Structure formats: C-alpha cells, structure tokens
Amino acid sequence: MRALLPGEGFRLRRAAAADVEFMAQLAAHDEVEPFMAAVSAREREELLEEVRRSEAEPALHGRFMLEVEGAPVGTLAFDVANRRSRIAYLHAIMLDPAHRGRGLAAAATRLLVRHLVFDLDYHRVQLEVYGFNERALVHFERAGFRREGVRRRAYWRHGDWVDGILFGLVREDLVPQVGSRVMELIHTCYRVTDPDRSVAFYEALGFEERRRLPIREEAVNIFMGLPGDGDRLELTYNFGVDSYELGTGYGHVAVAVGDLDATLSRLSEKGIEPERPPYTVREGGSRICFVRDPDGYRVELIERG
Question: Rounded distance, CA 218 to CA 240, Å?
C-alpha cells in the first residue's frame, strides 16, 4: 500500500445536499456497485435522506465525504446500532477507483473510527463485508479491525449465496486502560524547515503521510504514522522559517525494524546513511543504530528481538 504523496492532503467532512449527485454516481460505478450491500442507499432521494439524518442527529448518524485537495473522492457512513451499549455500525464505504492503492480508504476509516470513539464516545465500531470482497477484507484489517466471525452463505448476491464477514473494534483496541481512565500517547511533534524533504525522509523509514492541517496563515502541521498505527508523528512547518536550534535537550525518536541490515541497505539507496555501524549497548541486547533526518533530528532504529 503506497502512502499518500507529499502535498496530497485529505480530509473528512460531513456530507451536504450538494454531494448527493457525486455519491449517486459513485454508487453506480461499475467497479463499486458489485461490492455494495444490496440494501445500501443508491438513489438520490435515499442518499439525500441519509444526509438529512446526518445533519439532524450527528451523534447517531453520519454521512461523510472524503476529499483530496478539495475534490471529493469517496464517502463513508455510520449509524448507531445500540445506544445503550454505544455501538456504531460502519457502512457505505466507497472510493473512486481512480484513487485506489494510495492508502486513502484505510486512512479515512481510521480517522472516522477515532471520531466515533473519542469524539462521540462509542465503545464499539462494527461492520460486515461480503466474503468475495478481498480488497475490503484487507482494507479493514489494515484499519485496525478484527475478524470476529462469518455468516455462512447468508446473502443472495450475483446469482449465488455468499458469506458475510463480521469485523469489530472496541475502544480498548485503540488505547490501553490505566486504572479507570483511558490514556494514550497521541503523537510527538517537532519543527522542520522543508516539509516535502522531511516527508520523503520519513516515508523512506516506512511512515505514511496521513493529513495536513493548515494553522491559519502561519504554519502547516503534517501528521504521519506507520501502517496500522495512529498518527504518531507531527511535523510542523512555520512559513518563512529556514532554521532551528535543536538544543541539548532533544534525544531521539525510536522505530523498531525487523531486519536492521536490510533496512540500512534500503535507506542507503535513498542517500540516508547511519551515524555509525549497528551496535549493541549491552551483551545480548538489541542491535541499534542512528540516522538523522534532514533537520538533524536523530532517529534510532532498533532491530526486533
């Protein structure tokens, strides 16, 4: 799965009536419609009613638009499945086929799930996928969902009985429990002088660019994360600032890798060299080495095991 390219910022927003035409055309697309649930809204009036429910009861229903550079490329929806137990049901996840293979669907799903859990206080998010929809099966696992079961030969689709694959995710899958409070280390932030150069460096380490958030006319925040994980790294670019003093307090960011030698070989091809050859700090310890990003921030690579 290729990460989002530098500059391809994306966002989710609540759908409006003006989006219905796009959603109807996407639902009718030859490469989208065969994978949609038979009961999914397809007609304009049905979609408009979902938009109205989303606007009237935003905590219970939601139709969202996925945009890249301000242009719509997909849509997602949710409905409350159980108010008492705070369960949300995800459905109608559609992406323009021209934008497949860039990690957009997984990134958008992760963002919507975090909105449901942390903003709307849902405890559980669940969904169901046709067994023949292999792309979606992979997509939801990458987005953090777990397969929880199969409804065998449950649905009549395309002239045959097909399975329904059940997926679920609960709050505890996203954050650890500490005592009676939910706590999470969300991200680390530091300032950079060339955002595209920095993004290219961290993409070489395996990070994905998730989104860019403008801060008025002053700066832009770039959120990055490793596949299957949250947006743990925030790079801030202040317009017009071309240098920073790192000081003596900063240490490093640590990243675990499976094969340190293979990782260093791959980085070398991109012009990224270690400060010194791999070493261990104690007998039997993990092999480590350090590289530096374009602004001089140290990143520790730790070989697993």
Answer: 9
